[in-house]
Fold each of these.
Amino acid sequence: MLNQSLAAAPVRPHWGQPAPGDAEESPLLSRHPELVVTEFTYGRDKCIFGEGEIAEYVYQVMRGAVRSYRLLNDGRRQIGAFRLVRDVFGLESGSSHRLTAEAICETKVRMVKRRSLEAAAKSDVVVACQLWTMTANELRHAEDHMLLLGRKTAAQRVATFLLELDRRISVSGEVALPMTRCDIADYLGLTLETVSRTVTQFHEKGVLTLSGPRHIRLRDRARLAAMAA
Amino acid sequence: MLNQSLAAAPVRPHWGQPAPGDAEESPLLSRHPELVVTEFTYGRDKCIFGEGEIAEYVYQVMRGAVRSYRLLNDGRRQIGAFRLVRDVFGLESGSSHRLTAEAICETKVRMVKRRSLEAAAKSDVVVACQLWTMTANELRHAEDHMLLLGRKTAAQRVATFLLELDRRISVSGEVALPMTRCDIADYLGLTLETVSRTVTQFHEKGVLTLSGPRHIRLRDRARLAAMAA
DNA sequence: CGCGAATTTGATCGACATCAAGTACCGTGG
DNA sequence: CCACGGTACTTGATGTCGATCAAATTCGCG
């Protein structure tokens, strides 16, 4: 039968083991073979670095997912970014990390000594430019996210989030969420109940289908984009 | 009488004409005399550059104040930053501006061609590093502001804002606000009514005194700081 | 002084938070 | 393979903070 490929083939989630050669090359690391790269795997909810710690390494996610967040003294949490496969994080201009980074699920990272990167930047303008560009890309994301947190409604926030994840990690049209509703809520400045209700409403409206709470398939990206404002 | 200095001496606001030599030197501009610097003065509410425009110049506020913002399609506005005297803004890693910049009041800026800055950065690692550091400082502010917008209460937001302005522009203990309540609200993700009510409550609690709505004197910074976090 | 804009203040509303059960998922061990 | 248990998720009822609507009042400038 021709439709055997349509049968529920267990799609490997984006954050699982990458295919050989996947996410292997980063422009930053390939130019400078003298940079010592080490790898490490963190278990679920394990801290990679804490807010205020000296920034000794810069990281790249090889497998898994990471949340970067800050806490208010009463425990409220704001996740500033999710770091997904191929993302570089922990790059600081100052000497210390300004957000805590935690593995969301089992996560393998590559690490490069920050000092060695800086040394490479001093002798290679292209590397210096890449460091600047990476920070500028983070800034762009933060600017987008300020608009979301300051002015978007709950539905607009969730729609924006789903489109962001669709763009970044969808595999054959399906988004496999590595994070909980609580993580999503703390990223979007909402409560987990509001996130859950909003996803349910989107499902009822037919803009997405769910196969389990962590597997979302966007059915109408155009409508979702219109809702995201 | 000895108290003549206590009489309402008309304190020059921070954003007025700077004293001779004030804000004259920036590390970026002084190192490279070949950089051509021009000046321009924008009237109140005049646009300096729009979102999406090609980033031809980098700016420094010499006098006045600027708001950088983005709009949602329905007109809701999120101000990402206020640019005050000595602040550099409009520096982009990509080719175009990502936020609109408008003069809040009559504002004098210095402008440097972005291309000439980049040329200087290519030959001078220190300049390249400064560009990176400036972007990283913007990122730090954005990270702080995401926590505020996502998780702080109205009172915490206003307290944070007042302390930020106190640190940046207070003159002999008084903050002279160049911006309206509406600007403040759009910076803090609130409405102008909520900002007004909150300032009134702070006044009633005695943490600040007002001499006109645009002149605030912080009476109890410690309490305000406790409220901010 | 007088005018328009900015600000304050009051009354009411509503979106989202909070509190509280239920239900589904999923990894573990029998 | 299935039963079990804990966590994650959904759903419902109610509460509340800040938004919205609506006037005053004040400010600041010509």
Amino acid sequence: MSNHSFQWLQAELTRIITAQPAGSRLPSEPALAKQLKVSRATLREAMRSFETQGLIRRKQGLGTFVIGAVPLIDSGLEILESIEILAGRIGLKVTFGSLTIQQEKADEALAKIMNLPSGSEVMRVSRVIQTDERPVAYLVDILPREVLSEQELQSGFTGSVLDLLLRKGTAPLASSRTEIKATGASPELAHLLEVQRGDVLLQFVANLITNQGKVIDHSLSYFLPGYFSFHVNRRVG
Amino acid sequence: MSNHSFQWLQAELTRIITAQPAGSRLPSEPALAKQLKVSRATLREAMRSFETQGLIRRKQGLGTFVIGAVPLIDSGLEILESIEILAGRIGLKVTFGSLTIQQEKADEALAKIMNLPSGSEVMRVSRVIQTDERPVAYLVDILPREVLSEQELQSGFTGSVLDLLLRKGTAPLASSRTEIKATGASPELAHLLEVQRGDVLLQFVANLITNQGKVIDHSLSYFLPGYFSFHVNRRVG
DNA sequence: CAGTGGTCTAGACCACACG
DNA sequence: GTGTGGTCTAGACCACTGA
């Protein structure tokens, strides 16, 4: 026994994980490493992909837990809707936390994107989107101070800048030019989303545009794979 | 000096990398690790993100090299076009390699997607897309044997199943339902794309549909971040 | 406090490219 | 053979949780 290849290790872990009922705790990392005759480092490396797929969840100080089926937040990319609305459509409640609102000066790149005078004051709104179970996304919006004041953010903010702008209704929104990337979690992001540093995230970089063609919101969104499903219908060119 | 945090390490590496001209070789990993007073494991972990961003390239047996600006293969997701065509648009030549064509029986999930009798014969076409410099994508297409025979694949195949189907012209293609994911490279994928195991990849899972609504191609595509830029225009819902 | 996952270290060996 | 990156090991310490 013990074909000591990485693939064998992952297959063995799959067997172990799927044999457990949802919610149960796996043996500790040192115990599993000993049982599978690999070092703890190798074990942890092999488990990364299972966490990415949403099959397990690690909690520092507590242990590693098997996750059951997770409600997938599904969205077509043709339409821009807030995560709150997408989640509500499948009967899932989401909350937001770790909210920070800062005023800062736009750097050159941002000023160019938004067609602002260099050094303009902008608002940066950051927050984590959470389900009952865990944080699943991290969102950052950057807007000119004129578009959204600190007061407005402190009174009616539900976690979605888009919904807030739509409710406010002053700027007629047309579309969002969204760039799609894959990225690894930075140390800060990893901490906020409760994943490991370097774990795989899906990232959107978007500019929200009014029907006059003005960019009034630049946003960064980071999504945990395994909790979201984004799709698009592509015409054959 | 030597604030030994991971962030400090990455900042220091950024300084070192950007100070080098494109194409030059960095000091070896043991040398860099000693110089920065960290273990080789930590050094390598910190360098992962630089490779993901396309700033460096590691070559086993040779060294780690600084990469200059890379031609970005840019595409809107509304239209489905082959990578060859996208690359040609920016004046970039791509080739394909590691081609494998196998006949196999469709498993249950695939049979359901393509509405085939369970156990039908399908063709699986896999290949790596390469620029001058390096492999940048891995593509897998799965089609019913009736749609594309082995002969057709061996004669006129240029790397794009889409272009082949369009040239053949028998099936009027309508659209592709594409799911967008972020994933970590499996050991096989890492080897084929010459990246590290677990490195971040952008993944498309797509079903190509005729105007009769029949799925005639199921495909998996894996892209190296830093070489592609995908975007979409989203209407406000 | 003890036990968990998160990080880091020093060292070893393997796979690969070049001379 | 020599030197490179790729992998794995054994062990240590930190950060966090709950008793």
